[in-house]
Design goal:
With 72 residues, the chain is of the alpha/beta class. It has one domain: NAD(P)-binding Rossmann-like Domain (Rossmann fold). The protein is built from three helices and three strands. The chain has helices at 18-26, 46-49, 64-71, and strands at residues 6-9, 32-35, 54-55. Strands 1-2-3 form a three-stranded parallel sheet, with no helix packed on it.
């Protein structure tokens, strides 16, 4: 990605390598990152969470509605 760009990942956690993203953010190559999906979720990398601009819990499948739809 170009220097200064923002990364948005709302697709699948494994699309972005956690360690590579952490390094890129620490080096300030990217202006920031917005992450809604996490590699290894529901267990997320806390050190990546500290680096992202915005992190949200992509846990729709774990919600009451999500579970009832799967079993329904």
């Amino acid at each position: 990605m170009k220097q200064g760009a923002f990364l948005f990942n709302t697709s699948r956690g494994a699309v972005v390598e956690t360690e590579s993203l952490k390094r890129t953010l620490r080096e300030q190559h990217l202006a920031g990152a917005v992450i809604d999906v996490w590699e290894g979720e529901p267990n997320i990398c806390a050190s990546l969470l500290d680096l992202v601009t915005l992190g949200s819990p992509h846990i729709a499948g774990y919600s009451l509605d999500g579970r009832s739809m799967r079993s329904g």
